[in-house]
Amino acid sequence: MSSMMWGGRFTDGPDEILRRFNDSLGYDIRLLPWDVVASMAHARMLAEVGILEDGERDELLAGLRGIFDGGAAGLPAAEDVHSAVETALYERAGRVAGKLHTGRSRNDQVATDLRLYLRARSLDLAAACLTLAGTLLRRARAHQDDPMPGYTHLQRAQVITIGHHLGAYVEMLLRDAGRHLEVHDSSLLCPLGSGALAGSSLPLDRRRVASLLGFDGITMNSLDAVSDRDGAATALFAATLSMIHLSRLAEEMTLWVSGEFAILALPDRFCTGSSLMPHKKNPDVPELIRGRAGRALGDLVTLLTVLKGLPLAYNKDLQEDKEALFDAQDVLGDALGILDRIWDAATFDRARARALAEGGNLSATALAELLVRRGLPFREAHHRVGAAVQLADAAGGTLETLSSSALEEALGVEGVPGTIRTAAGLAAGQVTSGSPGPGPMREALRDMGRRRSALARRVTSRRDRLPSRAPSPHPDVVGNPFQQIDSDEDSS
Ligand code: ARG
Question: What residue owns the CA closest to ligand 1's atom 5?
Answer without folding.
Answer: 106
